[in-house]
Amino acid sequence: xxxxxxxxxxxxxxxxWAVTEQRLAAGDASGAREMGERALAMSGDNxxxxxxxxxxxxxxxxxxxxxxxxxRFEGQLAQEFGVAPSPETRALLASLENASASPPAATPPPxxxxxxxxxxxxxxxVTLAGVAxxxxxxxxxxxxxxxxxxxxxxxxxxxxPESLRYLEDGLPxxxxxxxxxxxxxxxxxxxxxxxxxxxxxxxxxxxxxxxTAVATRxxxxxxxxxxxxxxGEKLRFSASLYDRALGTDPVAHTEVEGAESDLVTLVDKLAxxxxxxxxxxxxxxxxxxxARTTSSLPALKAWLAGEVAFAAGRYGPAAALLRExxxxxxxxxxxHFRLAVAADWAGQSGVAVTEAERAVVLSERMSPSSRRVLLxxxxxxxxxxxxxxxxxxxxxxxxxxxxxxxxxxxxALFHGNPPQGLPLTAARDAxxxxxxxxxxxxxxxxxxxxxxxxxxxxxxxxxxxxxALDSNPDPAQRSEVFLLRALSLGDDSARRQxxxxxxxxxxxxxxxxxxxxxxxxxxxxxxxxSLVPAAPAGVMRTSLRLLLAHxxxxxGRFDEASRHIDSLALHAPHSAAVTRVLLATHPxxxxxxxxxxxxxxLADVSRLPASSDGRRIYVGAxxxxxxNAHGTAAIAVAHLATGDSAAVKQIVTRPANGLSEQxxxxxxxxxxxxxxASRAMALREVAMLDSLCASQYTAQSVFAPRALYHMEVxxxxxxxxxxxxxxxxxxxxxxxxxxxxxxxxxxxRRREALRARTSRVAAGAASPSPAQATxxxxx
Length: 779
Prior knowledge:
- The chain is an alpha/beta fold and 779 residues long.
- 65% of the residues lie in helices and 6% in strands.
- Strands 1, 2, 3, 4, 5 and 6 form a six-stranded mixed β-sheet that branches. Strands 7-8 form a two-stranded antiparallel ribbon.
- Strand 7 (616-618) and strand 8 (622-624) form a beta hairpin.
- Helix 8 crosses helix 12 (263-282), helix 17 runs antiparallel to helix 18 (368-381) and helix 22 (442-454) packs across helix 26.
- The chain starts with a helix and ends in a 6-residue tail after the last helix.
């Protein structure tokens, strides 16, 4: 709040100074003096502002008033700080006293007055440097730490009229102010730097060797050297960025040119170009594009702050900062794009789609690589994961060091592979590459944590989750990291952290998916059971009962699952009835128990009310408690298990409404395929559906877990002798939503059986037949 107050006061003071100059230019000396007094009051004890007002009064011809202002200020400094005004201010006083004995000077040209407008922002710290050592004795002392994001902007070399000397220290101060807070960058205090360099800074240009020593003293890894050439009304700034870890050759260089009257705009442009050059060197193609596609430095700085929050997994704050960037520059395509990504992580899918489309419309100025990353993200929002992956591979061929492209490729494989029968673990290399290029990418670290949990890579999971928690992500993301540690690593401290959290949809989502990645169904059951008493009555408590029922099914505890279903039925009868059908048709339900389970399940279905009075259930989203197409398919399978195939045939013969229903229909076709010809035809249709799943979004449902579809495909492939394909199909689980919990042990058993059978077949093929093993008699 204090920083914001200071900024607003400075803007008000700047506005009043501008009005003062306008009145002075119009010949309104009295009005200029009145406004100048008000501007000075807003400027506090700013010595530059005092000198500015003295000069304005002198320009208006009221030297007596100018001398009076100086005397008041001199007394204030003596009283508050025990020091005299700076040499610059005393020199201004001397010039006024000398001028009082000389003929009146000619009215200064407009360019001189414009220079005062520039001086208000560049000379504040310079003029206070003389008293800074007295007020703050610690200024100029070295910072003992070395920070790769700390930057020193050193005095610029000025070539041109003497009137430009104010830019020697002034431009680095302005530029340092602009660079400070740009993402993780922090600028060394200009006052401390000036005190440290002293008057030696003016004796000779600072070369990279000396600059390295200065940067080392202040604990900065980065430093900027630059020059200014002034000719008439034109200025040309050049700046080079150095990284002392890489030697004394610049890692980036940029130049801008324009009129002196546009000084502030030019410095903003120089800062933006320098940031873009730095991002280009470090492989941050998204950030480089952002720096090059907005002319608003406030927008760029808000964007960079949003990127820092996003990288740490703080998606809510990131979205707020990105909205600030858009407010500063509504045509800032990269801000719209990254807002779409942040909103997607924050669960605001509508905002994600809208902002992605807006970014595409404004994307003409993006680099080809960054635009491809944007187009791939939009493709994924429409379910086209295969198209996104192709686009991202082209982007990576152009820019292999783009961490953003590697990350989005990981997203495309992670979410796009399982629907088409491929493993999400194939995304590991892409996320690994994204993290190597940007170790602070929380989103990549979380996805990689999920993958290594599924692969039982405990060491990597421990390292990734510790680093993820250090970044202090949003509560929703923290809950998942705690669950990964609790269920995959047995971290009891993380388990206690989870139990202390309120039961929210985000926590429930995380518990479903981490239960599937870890396959620790017993541990997940204990956590879910402990959460029930404190969960809000109604949707959340009922939804926990649904999760507990599926965990019990996965553990083969059918009586326990039945009790959870009974509790579920009190609030969500339709969801409970379909879950009981899943119990009755579970592949490992004992054969002796199946007839009674089927009879009860179908009886429950027959007694369902037409509606459930607006009651809802939460499973990844909030749904009405009603039997939909997924539930109808489960009920049809129950009928088939009793020998009644009419319901299944009805689903097979009716037109499917969307890809999700096509997969339901395909599972039924596979179940009915009894001969080789029908199986071959079904597998051809499966291949077609796999292609569609790669390019269209397929909704997931806990009442029709995709594991059931993949197991049916694998069964038919195995019957055709295609063992390797059948085994690969079963690797399409786990998936992100975690709806396959009830079938994880059975999936594991079938994978092991297929692996063993494949090994036996391979060993048999490699063994010679008896005829081949017996040597032929010599002729």
